[in-house]
Specification:
Layout lengths: L7 H11 L13 H19 L6 E7 L14 E6 L9 E4 L2 E4 L11 E7 L8 H19 L3 H26 L7 H8 L8
Antiparallel strand pairs: 1-5, 2-5, 3-4
């Protein structure tokens, strides 16, 4: 049988196996350890995705104010919003509750659309395999710490977690195609006073 991408159920069963518990057949299994594992997996997914990776970051998103209030509302899946650095003199936005707040004007009211970058939460099934692997191993380590607390198992899973994080960072660098020349903050010193001539 061909291998397929990791499902949420498989991730839960991996977590259960770390503490020596038998697998479950569905996410609705009426077992306390399964529910705890699911909650921890969701908790870790939120934590990891909040960092903002190439696969859950959207650029050049248009945010429109409400016509009656001027408020810009965001969905519950959005965990971070940031402006293009070139507009920092006009806006310094942060997320407060489900609205965008401008710290420059100390107001929730906007009179025009904003073009911004946002970081979103995603369902486990939609994540790249390398992210699923890291989240599963990190969640398994936390699950083991909370349920069993064995130092030997902690050291074993902590090592796996570090390897998985390294692989995820490698993936991020490969698919993100990052360059210092994509950043306004990094390119300005090269362009100042003709310094670009030495590159």
């Amino acid at each position: 049988m061909a291998l397929t991408k990791t499902t949420k159920l498989q991730a839960i069963n991996t977590m259960l196996s770390v503490v020596g518990e038998p697998p479950v057949n569905s996410l609705t299994a009426q077992r306390a350890d399964s529910f705890i594992a699911q909650n921890i997996l969701d908790e870790v997914s939120r934590e990891v995705l909040t960092y903002g990776w190439q696969f859950n970051t959207e650029d050049n998103v248009t945010l429109s104010p409400d016509s009656s209030t001027g408020f810009i509302y965001i969905s519950d899946s959005v965990v971070r919003v940031d402006m293009d650095p070139r507009n920092d003199d006009i806006y310094d936005i942060v997320v407060r509750g489900n609205r965008i707040y401008n710290r420059k004007t100390n107001s929730f009211v906007f009179t025009e659309e904003l073009i911004a970058q946002r970081v979103i939460l995603m369902d486990f099934e939609e994540l790249p395999e390398v992210a699923k692997r890291y989240i599963t191993i990190r969640a398994a380590r936390i699950f083991q710490d909370r349920v069993v607390g064995a130092q030997t198992l902690h050291a074993f899973t902590a090592t796996d977690e570090l390897v998985a994080l390294t692989k995820m960072q490698e993936y991020e660098n490969e698919v993100g195609d990052y360059s210092i020349f994509q950043s306004d903050d990094m390119i300005r010193p090269f362009l100042r006073k003709g310094s670009y001539r030495v590159i």
